[in-house]
Predict the 3D structure of the following.
Amino acid sequence: MNMAKKNIYFSSYKLDRFSHLRERAAQLEEMKKTHDAKYIPVYHGRHIYMDKHSSFYRRSNPFECESECFLGMVGDQMWYSCPLNDQQAHALEKEVGKQFSSLRRYALKLNDELAHIALYSRGLDLWQRNNKFCPKCGTQNKMTWSGHKLLCENNHEQFPHIEPAIIVLVTKGDKCLLGRKAGWPTNAYSVLAGFVEPGETIEESVKREILEESNIKVHNVRYYGSQPWPFPAALMLAFTAEAENEDIRVDDELEDVQWFTRQQLQEMLKEGYVTIAPRYTVAHNLIVGWLESS
Ligand SMILES: [Zn+2]
């Protein structure tokens, strides 16, 4: 299969993380004197989207929050996210006259740079929020390293957790394998996906997940690309693979799995009988890439 690779959304950016500066609070403070800084309020991984500017709300003076989190630099500009608590978030919503909303709603309205920054600050915020207490001793965690490290009362350290997940375009000749979960929007189909388990390679994970979800054995597993997916903490590892058999058997995880030929899928999409994942997902890249390939 000859599939052209298109840009994976959220992954093209100019931001430099300058990760060595995170633990140098004094140096960051010093830099603020000579650099412009941008502060983004974030609440439960959400931002305030401003239609007028095709951007999320941000400003040049800091917000009151537990710890401002240094994201990095875009050129000479320092970027911070500010995780707000309930009270701070509600006060800001009142002040701005808009509510915090999910990135899913406005992802496609942002340019590459802003889309990446929104996704990055979302992932960082959700990790901090979901780890208020130390998993080793149960005492309260505090943010250090400008939000990139959590430290409990007994000095146990924690760094952001990422959960690797595989997502696979399985093909056989002119057909591809798509499935749907119960509870998805009517007629929505996508490529199959699942989480990598402890002790498993990603290639093994691809084979196991596809077999479990559809009874299809695959070979020729090829890496396609990756996409950070903080909903809440995944990293999507995208692959293509070829099927050895065609007899689908659906397990409990999915409501339906089917083979679609290119022509069938193109017609069904056109007629609205089937919908696929939104343009900002790597699932979309895989499906559309396959439809356009020969
Ligand atoms: Zn601890």
Observations:
- The longest strand covers residues 218-229.
- The domain at 163-292 is CATH 3.90.79.10 (Nucleoside Triphosphate Pyrophosphohydrolase).
- The pocket of zinc ion is lined by residues 134, 136-137, 139, 152, 154, 156 (CB under 6 Å).
